[in-house]
């Protein structure tokens, strides 16, 4: 009985310890065989009973040892064929989209000049995209040719430029206002290597007392040098936009040939990269900003065009096809 209890309580933490138990109890010289050899001294009338008890004890012990052994080989099979010391699979990093890289760079440059970032909706009304921006009712940009209309009378449409966000911000905020508005815009244009019906712009707006054209020019010069390099020069050419007066288009000296002339700048040495001007007083008034007290400048640029110059991308359609061979070539996401 005492021996049965001892065996019952026996523990083993390794297969070798199980084997030791086997030797200790049921091998030839083990404790149970010892009982068998003492068996001859048992009085005849008790032999039957004692014999059975010893046999039961032996079976009990065999069961116990087999169970212990099973429990080890079971927990073994949990890691069977699995090498826990093997190095892990490397985690593949994604890459940032080239348009996101350029957008973030632009945001950072203007951030250093104190420009905040704001956004507006892609689905807009006529007021924010055209009327408040001083477009006359018959302006060709409203034409079905250029604008994707969603509803007519009142007109709901996909914005054709991020200038709509100028209006939304000026309607909501008193000057001083100094912010940029990155976003996606839509124009009903045939898709080719050079143009797409979806593209991205970054708009800039600065409205305060005494904002001058000289402030605009200096801001854009700083931007161009930060983005394309310290040696970059800018050139402002007179232009026309309904919402700015005076208006200009800005060229930067070609960063590819350094102004020497190449096929990217069509041998002019200059690349057009944005439109800009002083905010038209009619636009300020449409947003309830006193145009006698405040002036402002605005500018807008296409991100695709800058990214194509930056990375030497020849076809705008690559940006929207999500071909992994194209995307993998850009900076890793971390
Ligand atoms: N919205 C104009 C465009 O899409 C760019 C622009 C913005 C021009 C702000 C002047 C001022 O072409």
From TrEMBL:
InterPro entries: aa-tRNA-synth_II, aa-tRNA-synth_II/BPL/LPL, Phe-tRNA-synth_IIc_asu, Phe-tRNA_ligase_II_N, Phe_tRNA_ligase_alpha1_bac, Phenylalanyl-tRNA_Synthase, tRNA-bd_arm. The keyword Iron does not apply. Belongs to the class-II aminoacyl-tRNA synthetase family. Phe-tRNA synthetase alpha subunit type 1 subfamily. This is Phenylalanine--tRNA ligase alpha subunit. It is found in: Cytoplasm. One of its GO terms (molecular function) is magnesium ion binding. Mg(2+) binds at residue 245. Pfam families: Phe_tRNA-synt_N (PF02912), tRNA-synt_2d (PF01409). Gene3D superfamilies: Bira Bifunctional Protein, Domain 2 (3.30.930.10). It catalyses: tRNA(Phe) + L-phenylalanine + ATP = L-phenylalanyl-tRNA(Phe) + AMP + diphosphate + H(+). Its cofactor is Mg(2+). Coiled coil: none annotated. Binds 2 magnesium ions per tetramer. One of its GO terms (cellular component) is cytoplasm. Residues 102-329 form the Aminoacyl-transfer RNA synthetases class-II family profile domain. Tetramer of two alpha and two beta subunits. Its EC number is 6.1.1.20. Keywords: Aminoacyl-tRNA synthetase, ATP-binding, Cytoplasm, Ligase, Magnesium, Metal-binding, Nucleotide-binding, Protein biosynthesis. The keyword Hydrolase does not apply. GO terms for biological process: phenylalanyl-tRNA aminoacylation. Signal peptide: none annotated.
